[in-house]
Every structure is written in C-alpha cells, then in structure tokens.
Amino acid sequence: MPDHHGYSQEGLQHYTCYRAQGPLTIDGRLDEASWTLAPRSPRFEDLETPGRPALFDTRAAMVWDDAGLYVGFWVEEPDVRATYTERDSMICEENDVEVFIAGRDAYYEFELNALGTIMERFYVWQDAYVSAGYARVPEFDLLGTERVDTLGGTWSGFHHPRGRRWAFREWDMPGLRWGVQVDGTLNDDTDVDRGWTAEIAFPWPGLYHLADGRPLPPRHGDVWRLDVSRFRWFDEGGRRACPGWAWNSHGAYDSHIPDRFTYVHFSEQTVGTTGTGDHG
Fold first, then answer.
1. What is the CATH number of the domain that holds 77?
2. Are strands 14-19 and 58-64 parallel, antiparallel or unpaired?
3. What is the pTM of this model?
4. How many CA atoms lie within 13 A of 4 on its CB side?
5. DSSP assigned state of 3
6. Burial 213-243 (b: 16+ CB within 10 A, else e)
7. Residue 136 lies in a domain
C-alpha cells in the first residue's frame, strides 16, 4: 500500500535490531560477537532499479544498547580509494558509505570514506519548520546564515512532493563515534584489495530531534526508518559515473526519500539468543 505521499511500500525491507551482547569498540573491525551474530542485510541493490544487485557485494547490520545505535558495513572493493581528509567535505564526490535516519519532519545524513573522514547534515522539511517546533530550537535558529542551505530537488532531476528542506550544514551529532578498517592498500591500483569495513555509533541523545516524542533508547517494538547505502565512482573512457547501492531501492537516483527508507524494528532480545532473526 502507498504511504501518505503516494510512495509504494512494495519491496521495503523490515529489519530487527537486537541488543548488543556487550560493549563495542568502535574501530571499524566488526570482530565482536555482536557483529558476528547480528543478521546482515541482503546484498545492497541499485538505488534506482529495485532488485538489481550491487556490482560489488555490500551489506550492513545494526545492534543497539542503552548508549546508542550501531551500524556496521561490509564493503567489497577491489581498489579502495579515498582522498578527502577535511570533515564535512563533500564525501559523496568519492567512494563512500552513508546512513540516513529519519523522523517525521526531519532527517539526518552521515557520510564516511575509507580514510575515516565524515560529513554530516541535518534536514528539516520547510513545511514543518515552524509547526514542528524546530524554529524554537537554538541550534536550528540559523536561517539566513551561511550555515544553512535549501535542498529542493537534486541534480538527478527528482523532486520530492513534500517540497524543500532546510539543510543545516554544520550540525554535528554530539557523541558520534566511527571507525574504518581497510583490507588492502589504500589508493594503490597495483594490487587487488578485498575491501573495507565501517562501524558507526549514533548516541541516543544525538537523535533527540528525530524521536518525535518516542523514548530514547527505544522500547521493544518501536520502529524507526533508516537508509543505509553506498556510492562507488567508476572512470571509463574519460567519463565518470557513480551508481548508488542501498539496502532498499528508492526508484530514483536520490537518497533523500525517507518514504523509501528501511523499517528498523527494535527488540529487547540480545543478539544471538534463541529465536533471533531478522524480519526478512
């Protein structure tokens, strides 16, 4: 059935996010038991074409505890590359992984390259900026400054029917942690790499503005919407192309469609205990 913007919910994945077995070291290695036991996503699919698998195997998993939500990536990549080192650079201009976390009237974007450089943005739908209370929050009372842009459609030509968003370019999630681990040699095309892994810790207090009154940490059965994706640049014949691969296809070359984000169901059950398994 369609959602309130008319988007089909067909093909959207439902994932059960279980409690971690114990503390996680956020170093990108994904070697703790929690990551070994957490159900992984299917192989990512093309952002535009549902059912078309990613050229290089890419998967993700999630766990949580009282401190935060954790997302892990396994990225197959024969030539691991990254050059941007300055925080909040346009990381999407080179190979990266991305996480979007959506609330009712706003959403958050996180981008990460294999050097461990990140970019963050916080978006508020303009039709709800005042009514949802964001205009009264000091950290979002920045309209008219260079720290805020307007996001409408994208260069791909897609335009969301809800309209424009305020894009807070310098918003940083407090307590955010991340790590990457490269299995190969970075920026060296003389050999074949296996890929890289990434691990991100999103603290619950940092998600307050997306909770819409829901408890943090979540209660058993609470559902959030997340988009987990990867972008990979190719150079062929002097031309550059960058397909996007995501947990759920969006049907358009645009990550900014919360209506197509994956459903994440939170469970109080510890990962790896009897009966755990994802929603499929």
1. 2.60.40.1190
2. parallel
3. 0.93
4. 3
5. -
6. eeebbbeeebebbbbbbbbbeeeeeeeeeeb
7. yes
